[in-house]
Every structure is written in structure tokens, then in C-alpha cells.
Amino acid sequence: MSKVAVIAVGGNSLILDERHKTIPDQYAATVETSKHIAGMIQAGWNVVLTHGNGPQVGFILRRSELAIHELHPVPLDYCGADTQGAIGYMFQRALHNEFVRRGIKNLAATVVTQVLVDRNDPAFQNPSKPIGSFMNAELAARKRAEESWQMVEDAGRGWRRVVPSPLPQAIIERDAIDALIRAGFVVICSGGGGIPVAENENGELVGIEAVIDKDYAGSLLARSIGADLFLISTAVEKVALNFNKPNQQWLDRLTVPEAKKYLAEGHFAKGSMGPKIQAAIWFLEASTGNQEALITNPENLERALAGETGTRITK
């Protein structure tokens, strides 16, 4: 079998700016990313694709808020399932059409993926992930009282609901994903960090109102299937020290010890590059061979693989 690359695409990568949020806009972004994925496949890679879904879940929650006088609300785990299907469909169609253009005999398939979390994860005692719309103090107080939502004031812009962000423990559909990879499919899975589920006392799965970090879940996916490469596609071409400061320094290569050192020194923000670096570290620490992690933006996937750009992380 060809080498396997897990590519983690950010949910914001599908929304270029405030003026391009519609479904056609998002599909156009998947078309562009699919061109680079097809290039990787032609270069001999077996590709597994995972993606973020933060903005898309936010849209579903907002629609639910606006329609609450007529329709039932959508639980958070179902929002995750909805976005996995919708974004997976966009990538399936975009990849199919790109394969036709290039004469590649391949197919993409989406697996709606559940990810196991621990009910005793400390994150459940400290909800920290903001989701949904901003609201005023009065509405926030009502939501807290009527629906037991945890609310926080967000940087002077209003109040938002916060939910737990537990660590992923296992990918429930791991064997199905592995079988599809071995059959030659491009697999789209674990979208948005996966749908958080926990086991009850009978061993049954129960949906959880939480959000799993997509990069952490992507790292677990890459480790679980023995991927050769964990490629994180984000908004910047390379990782930087002192990002957006006068002494900014772009990084071409990093070792795990260097990455740990810079992470501890606070070079990588918790809400952006920090989880990506930590996810890469976990992937490489679990590897037994010459696996690598690579961070770059979507338009530079092929150039980064060729060693021309991006930040390559090794043991």
C-alpha cells in the first residue's frame, strides 16, 4: 500500500473571509483544496482527510436559535454529525470531479465518525470552548437559568455559551476507516474532531455536549491508522516564532524537543498554533519509524511535500 497521509484541514479554510460564507463559497474552497489533494494522490500518497467545522456548527446553532419558536433545537453532537455529512459531501463531489479531470480512477467516501471521550475528563468541570452566537447579559442569564448553559463574557463583544473540550481517547469507526484506506479510497472522517461520545454503565454510547479539538483528534487518527505523515493545513505557510512581532522568525524545520521548548515558552498561542504543535508532538512521540508532521496552508500542500516550503517536524 502507498504511504498514508492524514491531512487536517481547518473549518475556517472553507471560509475565505466575511463576504464568502455561503455554501457555494465553501464548496469553491473545497474545490481548490481538492486540486492539491489530487496532486498528492498522483504523487503516490494514500490520503485520509479530516476537517474542522467550527464556523459551520455556529451557523447551525444560529439557525436553531432563530427558529426555536417553531422547531426543536439541534443538540451539539447532532450538529457535529450534520457538518460531517455536509462537508464530507462537498469534498466527495469536489474530489470526484477533480479525479475525472485528471483521469484518476479513485473514489472518496465519508465516514460519520464518533470519538470516545472520558466522562471523568477534567474538561467537564471547566468548560472552555465558546460556541454559537454572541448574546446580551439578559439573554445569557435566561439561558443559564432555563437550559443550564455555562456562559462567559467574550472580550467585550457579548456573552457566549461554553462547552467542555475533552481529550479524544479512541476512534469508534477506526477499523472501518482502515478498511477503506486499504481498499484505496480517499477517506474523509473524524470531521470537527469527531462526534463526542461516552460509554454508559452498560457499555452503550451516549452523545456528549462537547467539542473535541480537531487537531488533537487528527493526531489520534494518524496514530490509530499508522500514518506516515500528519499534515496540518492552516492559515499560514509556515510556523513562526514571535508571530506578528517585529522579530518574527519563520521556521523551516523543528524537532520534537525544539517544539516542546518553544511551546513551553509560549511562542504558540493556545487558540491557534499551540494545539497544532501539540498534536504533531503526540503523533511523532507515538511513531516507531520515520514519520513526519508538516504544517502549511492549503495552496502550498504540494510544494511543502516537495520540501520547498512549510514547517517540517521530525523526532
Low-confidence segments, ≥5 residues, pLDDT <50?
none
Number of strands: 17
Strand content: 15-25%
Number of helices: 9
CATH class: Alpha Beta
CATH superfamily: Acetylglutamate kinase-like
Order of helices and strands: EHEHHEEEHEEEHEEEHEEEEHHEHE
CATH fold-level label: Carbamate kinase
Average pLDDT across residues?
93
Task: Supply the CATH architecture.
Answer: 3-Layer(aba) Sandwich
- Tell me the count of domains: 1
Distance between the termini: 24 Å
The helix-and-strand class reads alpha/beta
Percent range of helical residues: 25-40%
Please state how the strands of the largest beta sheet are arranged side by side: 3-9-2-1-12-16-17-15
Question: What can be said about the biggest beta sheet?
Answer: 8 strands, mixed
Rg calculated over all Cα atoms: 19 Å
Global shape: globular
